[in-house]
Design a protein that fits this description.
CATH class of the largest domain: Mainly Alpha
Structural class: mainly alpha
Number of helices: 6
Largest sheet: none
Number of strands: 0
Helix content: 40-55%
Radius of gyration: 14 Å
Shape: globular
CATH superfamily of the largest domain: ACP-like
């Protein structure tokens, strides 16, 4: 079944009333549009924190690269990341949202929902 988010985007979540508006039909573009509410300086700071904790090159940490599978993160790094991001953003992430924080795009999405 074709996705409503663009050609070849199998598996994109379908939310009521959502329409694909990007001219770039990729999963990265989908995630970028869904997390556009965070300003660029904050996004950069969050990415810097995560890259530092993962000891990863910022070019390899994309919106969709997975912290555990692609970057070898462990549970202690996740706890450090969560605490650092909460402190920088001035929020507390509810436990039910933590499962979505497996990628940079997931972190941005959770932060948008809890801000």
């Amino acid at each position: 079944m074709p996705s409503r988010y663009g050609p070849g985007i199998e598996g994109c979540p379908t939310l009521p009333g959502e329409v694909w508006t990007s001219s770039e039909p990729t999963w990265e573009a989908y995630v970028a549009e869904r997390t556009a509410g965070l300003d660029e300086p904050l996004r950069a700071e969050i990415k810097d924190i995560i890259c530092g904790l993962l000891r990863a090159d910022p070019d390899t940490v994309t919106l969709t690269s997975r912290f555990v599978e692609d970057h070898g993160a462990d549970s202690l790094q996740f706890v450090d990341m969560l605490a650092s991001v909460e402190r920088v953003c001035g929020v507390l992430v509810p436990p039910e949202e933590m499962g979505a924080m497996t990628t940079l795009g997931g972190v941005y999405g959770v932060l948008e929902r809890v801000r």
